[in-house]
Structure formats: C-alpha cells, structure tokens
Specification:
The chain is α+β, with helices and mostly antiparallel strands and 103 residues long. It has a five-stranded antiparallel β-sheet with strand order 4-3-2-1-5, with helices on one face. The model has no long low-confidence stretch (mean pLDDT 87).
Length: 103
C-alpha cells in the first residue's frame, strides 16, 4: 500500500502558494479600491446630515429641492416651491446640502 498522496509534491505546494497569494492580493485591491472609498463617502454623508441647520438649502434623494425650516432628532421640515409648501422628511433622505460654505 502506497502513501504517496501524503507526501507533499514541491511543485503542487508552490502552485497552491501562488494561488493563495494571488487571491489575497485580489482581496487587498478590492478593499482599497471599492470598500474603503465607499465607507469614506458614507462617513462624510452621515457627518453632513448631522450638521444640517435651519436655513440650509438641501436636495433630497428623490430630487426635491427645499430649505430647512425646522429640525428634530430624526426628521426635518423643508419648504419647497414658491407656494411655500412644507414637507416633513427623514434626515437620511437628504442627499446634498447646497448652502454655500464659508471658507
């Protein structure tokens, strides 16, 4: 009875090592080019939403443009259009703050 399958073939070990290293390299590249920038954008969006104030001009995810007239912990009331319609929205629905920033 032969136990040849238990002995490590140097060529097979080298090929497996190369496969593992290339897979590891792909995962590292995936992290730095896809996951990390996405986490950074999410962090900036969360910071922007937490710093919203009355009087800021905002655009919602749905494309509604308005000015904040009141804020609560999780909701905002925005005023839209020339007829001064007011809409209550959740804070996470704000996509962009278009108020000019002071430098």
């Amino acid at each position: 009875m032969s136990f040849a399958f238990l002995t490590a073939d140097p060529a097979a070990t080298g090929g497996m090592l190369t496969s593992v290293l290339s897979l590891g390299l792909i995962l590292v590249v995936f992290y730095f080019f896809i996951l990390r920038p996405q986490q950074k954008r999410e962090k900036e969006a969360t910071k922007m939403r937490s710093n919203l104030q009355v009087g800021d001009d905002v655009i919602t995810i749905g494309g509604i443009v308005g000015t904040i007239v009141s804020t609560k912990e999780d909701t905002l009331v925005i005023e839209t259009g020339s007829d001064r319609s007011k809409i209550r929205i959740t804070r996470w629905a704000v996509q962009q703050n278009t108020t000019p920033k002071e430098k």
